[in-house]
UniProtKB/TrEMBL annotation, chains A, B, C, D, E, F:
The lineage of its organism: Bacteria, Bacillati, Bacillota, Bacilli, Bacillales. This is HD domain-containing protein. Pfam families: YfbR-like.
Amino acid sequence: MGIHTYFRSLNELERITRCPGKFKFEEHSVAAHSWKVVQYAKTLANIEEMNGSVINWKKLYEITSSHDYGEIFIGDIKTPVKHASPELRLLIQQVEEGMVNNFIEEHIPEEYKAIFCNQLREGKDDSVEGLILEVADKMDQVYEAFAELQRGNTEQEFVKMYCNALRKIKNIDLNCVKYFLEHILPDMVSEESMSSIDIRKITEEALA
Amino acid sequence: MGIHTYFRSLNELERITRCPGKFKFEEHSVAAHSWKVVQYAKTLANIEEMNGSVINWKKLYEITSSHDYGEIFIGDIKTPVKHASPELRLLIQQVEEGMVNNFIEEHIPEEYKAIFCNQLREGKDDSVEGLILEVADKMDQVYEAFAELQRGNTEQEFVKMYCNALRKIKNIDLNCVKYFLEHILPDMVSEESMSSIDIRKITEEALA
Amino acid sequence: MGIHTYFRSLNELERITRCPGKFKFEEHSVAAHSWKVVQYAKTLANIEEMNGSVINWKKLYEITSSHDYGEIFIGDIKTPVKHASPELRLLIQQVEEGMVNNFIEEHIPEEYKAIFCNQLREGKDDSVEGLILEVADKMDQVYEAFAELQRGNTEQEFVKMYCNALRKIKNIDLNCVKYFLEHILPDMVSEESMSSIDIRKITEEALA
Amino acid sequence: MGIHTYFRSLNELERITRCPGKFKFEEHSVAAHSWKVVQYAKTLANIEEMNGSVINWKKLYEITSSHDYGEIFIGDIKTPVKHASPELRLLIQQVEEGMVNNFIEEHIPEEYKAIFCNQLREGKDDSVEGLILEVADKMDQVYEAFAELQRGNTEQEFVKMYCNALRKIKNIDLNCVKYFLEHILPDMVSEESMSSIDIRKITEEALA
Amino acid sequence: MGIHTYFRSLNELERITRCPGKFKFEEHSVAAHSWKVVQYAKTLANIEEMNGSVINWKKLYEITSSHDYGEIFIGDIKTPVKHASPELRLLIQQVEEGMVNNFIEEHIPEEYKAIFCNQLREGKDDSVEGLILEVADKMDQVYEAFAELQRGNTEQEFVKMYCNALRKIKNIDLNCVKYFLEHILPDMVSEESMSSIDIRKITEEALA
Amino acid sequence: MGIHTYFRSLNELERITRCPGKFKFEEHSVAAHSWKVVQYAKTLANIEEMNGSVINWKKLYEITSSHDYGEIFIGDIKTPVKHASPELRLLIQQVEEGMVNNFIEEHIPEEYKAIFCNQLREGKDDSVEGLILEVADKMDQVYEAFAELQRGNTEQEFVKMYCNALRKIKNIDLNCVKYFLEHILPDMVSEESMSSIDIRKITEEALA
């Protein structure tokens, strides 16, 4: 039915909740998460650019803004499932891509098909833009998990999410990661907290 | 940690929303859905028993009350994904069962392991109890979809859900299905409706 | 209008909130509560059966799954009101039963009336099934209250609910109660907690 | 503990939902309902005063602002229950009053007890202020029910609520009732509506 | 369209959230806030009257019940904005009053215009009623902020709200203020709290 | 405290509701709105580029992703207020900009100040990127209002929002506007609708 179908479908990501099931003080929609990733990525790219990297802003814009569009078709499948077996992870990715491609084939007019394939492709490649997307996506897990722990959420899930996301970030070799770890994260860790968990300590362990 | 971990986890199904993404006038949790399935199944089994069938009530109790427990691990993966390919459907089922088994292995004391394996097994087999569970599960889709259509929800998803569930029900050879189609469904269809869709007509087509 | 009216009404218990008025970190519907009671009862009955008791599974199924159906007519009338005077408690019970009977009279076809009278009767009698229902119902109060206290809820209501429910459970002479007190409750009490209340201590006092 | 306990308890009426169970497009708390009753009563009293009545504004203030305070203790017990039998209605009223009196006895300092007894008394007597309160309370039922019907809610409950409230209003002999029926209600009835119910017609029947 | 438009508009204040944006354990609507202000003011006026003051109850009723009606037109504009500059504060007040006047001009029948101008006027003048309204309005900020801090909310916003409101209250020369500070506030401060903030200390500093 | 303060504040836009007060079938947060604007703008820019325009993607990224950041400080001040008088509109804009500048001054490290001034500036200028932002922002009003009308919302507010947004869009001279009006809007208008309003007709009038 054309690009209208695509625009209209965006609304569905406002109604899909991240991390379903677990008790949370705050619920986040996939749409709001996606917007925050766009924001982090923008600032990370600015930092990267100030340190001499060349950023393809068009690519960065495309891959960050749509990076979770596929969840319209598969929902927020829980991380443990995605990782339950390498075959499953691969197959789920294939299905997600297949459903996105079907959507484009069915709804997007011929002359815009190539553009939508680009927009809705998996963006986390090894380019600087792909890496920034990966950092920004994990940063939002850090922020979400931190806010839960800080308010005294005792679910172990959020300790794991916080630590795993930090570990993934620190292994990415970008100037903006260095800035995040040296200037942004310490401000977060020094915030007042209700948690019985020693956030400073789990942060240091994750970064060790 | 023992059966406490199991009891505690039940709470998560109160926080998992059915049919995520689509606009709905009413949200339903997996826990509430499970309870309604328990209720329908009880009455369906009563009807079946009145018509001369022998019901294994222990088995029926076990399989209906826990039939969606696995969604704690995989969330409400959307129907189209499950059906995107036979391999995927199979693999998702294997993962779900694997995660349930892991849970039992890790948390349930040795002497109760067999019981929990029974309780949390896939119950939709060809026994009368398995068939009643299948009917009850689909009946809740009929009720959910009908309530949305009746209030004027224009999402095509609910037309599909309504018709597909009816088609599956009518192909199950049970006395209680006959009763549902002849005495319960007509009362539903004759309710007042805001829908621009002709519910009577799509019902007849689904049952044709 | 027939059994359809009954099935349709189940939905209302999804919209009735337990313990209205008090501040809670988590809201629970009567439907979700009912489902958890079904689950607890199933496992309690399994434990009881392993210890040599004979369980009437059909009866257990009937009384646990419908045990709060009457709240459709009277809402979740607060416990203190129910107990304000013996006459009131009795009269409220009479009204609830009267309204359930009226419902059956008006809506259920003649041939199913006896079945529905059985299903929707007050189930908490002195049979093993009735006692298991009582334990399962109180266990959900323990779980609900514990989860509030654990997260730092300072409402005294939840201390009372937790202690009263434990006191009622410990006075019921069943093998599954012994198992609950010796193997399940200790795991709960040893969980991490934000509470300024000493949960271990109030647990010991309630069980003393 | 003093008046603080009273002030703090007001918060609970923000969390008690009116008309629990039924499907509604909009939920209303008892606190918000109470505020709207205060507003209607004020305007009704102004109209009454303009027509020559003498209003005791202190009394009107007292009885309208606290008229549902007792629901903190008994919740929003459903209307059909209240009316199930004359004894029950009377007993529930006695319990509500008893619990309010206990509260005052226990928490309110000696020198303010008389004032709180006045404030929290049942206000719907035959004085002009008591009658205005009755009209204002029913007017909010009219507004709530109308808004549901207007949006296409098909629950018969709201038809009954609308008609019953109108019938009670029309039988109260006040100038402000005359104004409401002649000048305010017609504006409501002439609003655009999605309802399949002929609101004009049921209005005329209720007022006949 | 007449007074119906006014009555109908009241509903909008049920849907406007106080203090938008900040994380809160409890959301409050402007309507529920307004009702609590009506309640506090009533008791404050009773206390004042017992100490020999003469209260104009009609005026008190009018100004307290409608004191935030203007937020229907301007929403809950954040306090820092209102105070960002004296011109802005003044202009926002002018706009609010202008929009209220327009509303009256357009919708209220000629013979009631004067009454509505009185009802919807800014009530916080130097009369005893105006001062009581000011105290009651600030008391609700104290209660809202205290309940957040007590539950461990770490947002500095609520510390500021609590302290600023207390400072404004203590500078108002009324007997009821003396009663509040000597008898009500100490009960609040002595409640159990999860906060890492020393509420007693910030209370003393605010009152110093 | 550095960029952390900025990242953390993004969360507040998840909690600010668009169009507060009015009855809506669906609530939208400012964060989710912002994300949809980012998405529309990306596709609009693609269309514009295909028609020969040169897009500064960095600028487009910056201005679209942050275009409502100022609402953290002033909330969603209602459109009628913003337009109540030219002085007010100007002053509100000045205050918003002043508060954003204060935020940057206070929290953003010296070396990133210029970047944040750029990012958080008012982006709706006469450049192609500024115009695309204006179109995308208005398109989300069209989508929000349409979805309400389609479901039978009778609030006149949404008719006005729909028509005004369309009128602003059609007056912007861009190729992507032409595409929207000729290919996307007709698909929207031809969707099934519950509305008693003739959406096709009001669309034609707005575009006339």
